[in-house]
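Notes to self, UPF0291 protein JFN88_20780:
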Amino acid sequence: MDRFLRPIERRSQRETFQEVIEVEKLIARINELSRKNKSVGLTEEEKAERDILREQYLTIFKNNFRNQLDSIEWTDEEPPLKH
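result:
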């Protein structure tokens, strides 16, 4: 399984920190390719890499967003009035 696409589960702070570092490296590489594309252009291999990295980033973003939404607990109860 791709190192960026691991299923979300309870992880230690160290594992979470390492995953944040991996995502930051992913973003840095995407930005590097973007700057190169604007200045001198990309080879076909670099374009393919950029597309894969972008897809990985979007998958991570969507998974994290979905997990945030899934963790929301809705209630219909009104909080008690405090006097």
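- Residues 65 and 83 are 38 Å apart (CA to CA).
- The chain is about 65% helix and 0% strand.
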